[in-house]
Amino acid sequence: MTKVEDVAAQRTQLENWLNHVLGLVRRFDQLGRDRQAAYARHRHLYVRYLERWGAAAYFLWVFILTVALTIVAIILFIGIPLATMNTSEDFLAEVARIFLLPFPAALPGALAIVLLRNTRARAINKRRRVLNEQRADQIEDAVRPEIESINAGLQEIADDFSKHVAGRFPEAYLYDEAILFCLTMARNHRASTLTAALNLYETELHNRRMENYAEAQLAELKRATEVAIFNGIMNQLGHAATASAVRAASFRSR
After folding, report:
1. Nearest by Cα to 22 from 177, 155, 168, 153
2. CB contact at 8 A, 28 and 21
3. Which of 37, 156, 211, 227 is most buried, judging by how many CB atoms fall within 10 Å of its CB?
4. Does residue 51 contact residue 177 with C-beta atoms inside 8 Å?
5. How far apart are CA 141 and CA 119, in angstroms?
6. Measured distance CA(223)–CA(233) in Å, rounded
7. pLDDT tens digits for 17-56?
8. d(CA 234, CA 250)
């Protein structure tokens, strides 16, 4: 076999292997989406918790009560006969009450409303938490057959990964974009080894960072997250035998 034929054979072997690695990663991603979809179909069964009222709600109620008390004061003022006001000072005192008293009176009133509502919300949320825990158990029972099938698929990926990928492909590049790039380099005869393909990929990443630093940082964070999810579940599947461990590892990562 000539050197050219040897390089071609090596490149073909790399391409086939990268195709296999890409298939594993994409199947893993699909099973993750299937898992999320299985639980999402039952998400509507959960009861929403009431949010705690804060400063915004307090000042809104201060405004509402101030306006309401001012209107009440104006109505009462209109009903007072002018004859009862002996001097102009009496008239000014009544006007001052209309515009000065509502606001300070609204402050404790708004505080009382917010405190009472938050106390009621805590009691309601406590009951809803118990109800949601019961429904979570019901949902777990409903999705168990599907989740067990997904876990079995993840276990198959883990076994295949440990036999054909672990130790051969750097963990930092175990995501769709990097593998597809390396595969493209092999197909286009630009790389016949994994090291050469990854070096080209690093050059591509560097060029992207130089062109747009902010977007490159976000893309790097996304890639790191995808790698952490994949490696975390693969490690759990390699050391845990139960389906519950698989599920716990997946949801801690996502």
Report:
1. 177
2. no
3. 227
4. no
5. 34
6. 16
7. 999 999 999 999 999 999 999 999 999 999 999 999 999 9
8. 10
